[in-house]
Design goal:
Length: 645
């Protein structure tokens, strides 16, 4: 029976009801002094003594002596109604054996009453020596108290709520929970609880077996922390940062504000590793970590993603200007050179800033935006700060999409060749054609060459693309030769392809495969070849010429090549860029330049081809200047091979 401090009866269990008969119902209707004044007086007289532990007392009644055990509880006093004097019960050898057995167990054992399952809840009636040793409590301190005594500030309330719900269902719960010892020190236990029934099958007690799992939990936590931390600096790694960003975004959803992510990349860090070694590089990273931390607040997050990449997460900013100013302070802390081994190493950092005022942007997207912005700073010359710009992002996304379409075009055979005629300007007779590559998108629409050709050049995909062009063009040229057509076929070759040094071998292999006469092939290169790899270009072009290939210098006049090189390079043809041809009838100086070019090239023994001829006036003027060969929309647009058969 449980009695409150005000002597109101809180609970009468099944055993007490059987012993008390009709008085049990009366106790639930009125205060204890009104129903059982003798017991109320006994409790009041021994209240202070109960602080030292349970008391076994006798209380006269009409039915004879009542054997009672009084003990303190969380909410008042507990009254145990014993069937026989406590001294006789404690002398029972079976009970002594049972208690001795429980005290030999290495796990902690705690026994409580089964009722009430709601507050004030079951009270402790037994604790073995292991539990007393583990918690530091004495048995007197525990008896009559609720197991809530072991809970503390960090005990998970959801776990204890689930535990209480399981007890109310008379389940046998098992869980891990954070408990506290008598000194307030936390420790983790693995707890298993089972109900104990009497001879009638009625649950009378709960028996809980507890095992201290603090060491295991600490090891797991250490491993988890290791998985979330950078081993060199101890800072959160990419995974640890992602978790913190997710938490910050969740807070932002509940309370609008401003979150900023600063993606920081050390400039020229690889040079330090290459020159001084990785040990020095690691020391530099630790120095940078220390300097950045001196600028940040304790609740800001500094993370290292690996290499020379750091990220700062700040989620308590007042304005976007604050984020930019923070980035500038982070840069300023690196201005002072780092002294190492008698040398001074200059430090700088490129930084991209991405911000969010709501929690709907994902952590991955914020990281992508900050990383992209940092990369734009790198491209602009390093050592700067930039804020994410959606327009720049859109342009980058378009560029990435174009590259993917180009890669898919190579992989899924979406490249096409169109052929533009090259004619005799005097009579319009076809002399040959230029093979021009086209790219189909996934929807079948053609992507303009001024979009995908520069992308192919930047990414190096130009080389496999030109190999495909070469193979297809050789097949076309062989078919023309089989048909007896004396046309020459021109294909463009990029500087990247020439730099590979494989073009000559590839052409020879194609000749061996097809038996084509390479005298019908023209290789067109731009003036860029002369600027980038003059010696390599001279060697390869000479080898091609020896194999019978005709060499043309394309887009003449748009670069910076020296005319004197033309006398040295094995060039047969010079193609005047269409930008000159468009102005031939409107700009006298342009016409003079073209006239001079034609005269010089003829004196050098070179054939002049005019590109981009669109009007009859342009054709007539070029003929008057001595130019005999040209191509352009006046004679035909680039068309598929089927239009040539």
């Amino acid at each position: 029976m449980l009695v409150s401090e005000a002597l109101a009866v809180l609970h009468v269990d099944r055993t007490a009801r059987a012993l008390l008969g009709s008085r049990a119902a009366q106790l639930e209707q009125a205060p204890l002094p009104a129903v059982w004044p003798e017991l109320a007086e006994l409790i009041a007289g021994h209240r202070d003594a109960l602080e030292q532990g349970p008391l076994d007392l006798e209380l006269p009644s009409p039915q004879g002596q009542r054997h009672l055990r009084l003990f303190r509880t969380d909410d008042g006093v507990g009254v145990g109604l014993l069937a026989e004097p406590a001294a006789e019960a404690s002398a029972d050898p079976r009970l002594q054996l049972f208690e001795g057995l429980l005290n030999t167990i290495q796990d902690a054992v705690l026994i409580t009453l089964a009722e009430p399952t709601d507050r004030p809840g079951p009270v402790i009636v037994y604790a073995n020596e292991t539990l007393l040793r583990d918690t530091g409590f004495s048995r007197e301190q525990l008896l009559g108290r609720s197991p809530r005594l072991f809970q503390g500030p960090d005990t998970d309330p959801t776990v204890t709520a689930a535990f209480g719900a399981a007890l109310r269902r008379w389940d046998s719960p098992a869980m891990e929970v954070l408990n506290y010892d008598c000194a307030g020190n936390p420790y983790w236990i693995e707890l298993k609880v089972a109900p104990l029934a009497d001879g009638d099958g009625w649950f009378t007690h709960w028996v809980s077996v507890q095992r201290d799992v603090s060491d295991r939990r600490a090891g797991e936590q250490a491993l988890a922390q290791q998985a979330l931390s950078d081993p060199l600096t101890g800072l959160p790694n990419r995974r640890g940062l992602a978790e913190r960003i997710e938490l910050a975004l969740a807070r932002l959803q509940r309370r609008p504000g401003l979150l900023a992510l600063l993606f920081c990349d050390l400039d020229r860090f690889k040079e330090v590793n290459d020159r001084y070694g990785h040990a020095t590089g690691d020391a530099l990273l630790l120095e940078v970590t220390h300097r950045l931390q001196t600028v940040l607040r304790s609740h800001d997050t500094l993370a290292r993603l690996g290499g020379d990449e750091f990220v700062v997460l700040v989620d308590t900013l007042a304005s976007e200007d604050d984020a930019v100013q923070l980035a500038q302070r982070l840069q300023d802390c690196l201005v002072e050179p780092w002294r190492h081994g008698g040398e001074e190493l200059s430090l700088s950092m490129s930084m991209g800033v991405a911000m969010c005022t709501h929690g709907r942007t994902s952590a991955e997207e914020l990281m992508r935006r900050a990383d992209l912005t940092m990369y734009q700073v790198k491209l602009a010359g390093r050592d700067g700060v930039a804020v994410y710009d959606a327009d720049v992002d859109q342009a980058v996304q378009a560029s990435v999409g174009l590259r993917q379409q180009l890669e898919q075009g190579l992989r899924h055979d979406r490249l096409l060749l169109h052929y533009q005629p090259i004619v005799n300007l005097e009579d319009g007779a076809i002399l040959g054609a230029e093979a021009l590559v086209r790219l189909q998108g996934a929807d079948g629409a053609l992507i303009p060459p001024d979009r995908f050709i520069p992308m192919a050049e930047r990414t190096g995909l130009i080389v496999p693309m030109e190999r495909w062009v070469l193979a297809c063009a050789i097949d076309t040229l062989r078919e023309w030769q089989r048909q007896g057509r004396p046309w020459r076929l021109s294909i463009n070759v990029s500087p990247h392809h020439l730099e590979k040094g494989t073009l000559v071998q590839e052409l020879l292999e194609q000749r061996q495969r097809t038996g084509v006469d390479l005298a019908g092939l023209r290789i067109e290169v731009t003036e860029t070849v002369l600027l980038r790899e003059h010696a390599q270009a001279f060697h390869d072009l000479s080898a091609l010429k020896q194999a019978g290939v005709c060499i043309a210098l394309d887009d003449f006049g748009t670069g910076y090549s020296s005319l004197s090189w033309l006398s040295q390079l094995p060039v047969d043809i010079v193609k005047l860029d269409q930008s000159y041809i468009r102005q031939i009838g409107d700009d006298a100086r342009c016409a003079t330049l073209i006239r001079g070019f034609v005269r010089v090239f003829k004196e050098l023994g070179l054939v002049v081809v005019a590109e981009g001829i669109e009007t009859e006036q342009q054709r007539q003027m070029l003929l008057a200047m001595g130019c005999q060969v040209g191509q352009g929309y006046l004679f035909g647009r680039p068309t598929p091979l089927s239009d040539w058969t």
